[in-house]
Design a protein that fits this description.
This protein is an alpha/beta fold. The protein contains 13 helices and twelve strands. The longest helix has 20 residues, at 249-268. The structure holds pyridoxal-5'-phosphate. Pyridoxal-5'-phosphate is lined by residues 75-77, 101, 104, 147, 151, 175, 177-178, 197, 199-200, 209, 211.
Length: 384
């Protein structure tokens, strides 16, 4: 049936309205029974449990990921922590990559161990030894958390090999913030949960903080109870903005994929640049894995300058076009010198451990900028 002739829904508004009610009423006792006791309808409950605008965006994100269901959260970190707490308890073992998002690393290193979780840290820099390390673990982990590509070096993981290394029982979660659909389809590779900061590419307008967890129904149902209880929920307006953003996700990703490739190739051929980390380049240490798993390589390009911290800062400062800020997937181009921003509290030993130097710069291309102008700007800044 043509959409224009469908039965009236939302007073024929093409865009759904935004719900922001703290609670929802029941019409009668029967409604209470189906809504509350049997949960056969999602209508009529309380704002921490249900919101019709969440439902729409969650359905959309689940479909984009080609999986059963999805939950919206107040932030990417809220999504991560709620998912981890669902499957871990005192005495259980979790695995996380040394190169994962800094705050995720803090959760595994400094928070979960306080509750008796044994968190095992493995580096993904050498993909084979990561898989080997996973296979060696006895007892087997309850949860294996992955992130791909990682920041700032865009390291990759052999996703298909993870399941056979850890056996059928482990819950495997993957942080897909840097490669949301269509660039990476985690559920085609044995992943159980895709956890994503919607603040980044998914929303892509730099105007909300939110997170999502997508996956199989049985797992999402368990996480839902924990979200209901712990309450790290977003509100209806955040869901509305995210819903609007998802209309353009594919277009935005396509555009930054091509911008990223152009800028990465420019930097790779620039004599003043020591190395470039972009999974679309053959020179990336994990190019083979990237070619196997990624359909596009996104708009974040990391490069190393053979310079001191101050010399690098001067070059970053010379750039006219990007904002000096941490984020990616936003409309505007952003730049950060890694040791000034994300890793400013790290000592030289810790920096060496994660392979970040004072000359490491991360450029997050904004889809509203012209790639030619970005290249001209970079070229001018790199002239010494
Ligand atoms: C930003 C980010 C997060 C955290 O998401 P928030 O929405 O900021 O809480 C987690 N993982 C990665 C890879 C990120 O880039």
């Amino acid at each position: 049936m043509p959409r224009s002739r469908q039965a009236e829904r939302f007073c024929n508004s093409i865009n759904p309205p935004t719900y922001s009610s703290a609670s929802y009423y029941f019409r009668d006792q029967e409604d209470v029974i189906s809504g509350l006791h049997e949960k056969t309808i999602t209508r009529g409950r309380y704002g921490r449990y249900n919101n019709p605008t969440w439902d729409l965006v969650e359905e959309r994100v689940a479909r984009l990921n080609d999986t059963d269901d999805c939950l919206l959260f107040a932030s990417g970190m809220a999504a991560h922590v709620t998912a981890f707490m669902t499957f871990l308890e005192a005495g259980s073992r979790a695995v996380f990559p040394s190169e994962c998002y800094r705050q995720t690393r803090n959760v595994f290193r400094r928070i979960l161990p306080r509750f008796g979780v044994e968190a095992v840290e493995l580096s993904i820099r050498d993909p084979q030894s990561f898989i080997h390390g996973l296979g060696q673990l006895e007892p087997k982990p309850t949860l294996v958390h992955l992130e791909m590509p990682s920041s700032p070096h865009m390291y990759c993981i052999d996703l298909d090999a993870v399941r056979s290394a850890v056996g059928g029982q482990a819950v495997i979660s993957l942080d897909t913030s840097f490669a949301p659909p269509p660039n990476l389809m985690p559920f085609h590779h044995g992943i159980d949960l895709a956890i994503c900061s919607a603040t980044k590419y998914l929303n892509g307008h730099g105007d909300i903080v939110a997170g999502v967890v997508a996956g199989k129904q049985s797992l999402i149902d368990r996480i839902r109870w924990h979200r209901d209880t712990m309450g790290a929920v977003a509100d209806g307006r955040v869901a509305e903005l995210l819903m609007r953003s998802l209309h353009t996700l594919e277009m935005r990703i396509e555009r930054v994929n091509s911008m990223g490739m152009r800028v990465a190739e420019f930097l790779e051929n620039h004599p003043g640049v020591h190395s470039v980390y972009y999974t679309g380049l053959d020179s990336h240490p994990h190019a083979e894995l990237a070619a196997r798993y990624l359909r596009g390589h996104g708009g974040v390009v990391t490069f190393d300058l053979p310079l001191s911290r101050d010399e690098t800062a001067k070059i970053v400062q010379k750039m006219q076009l990007p904002y000096m800020a941490s984020n990616f997937g936003a409309p505007q181009t952003l730049v950060e010198q890694s040791t000034f921003f994300t890793y400013f509290e790290y000592g030289d030993n810790e920096l060496a451990e994660i392979g970040v130097s004072h000359g490491t710069v991360r450029l997050a291309l904004g889809y509203t900028d012209s790639v030619d102008e970005i290249i001209i700007d970079l070229d001018a800044a790199l002239k010494r």
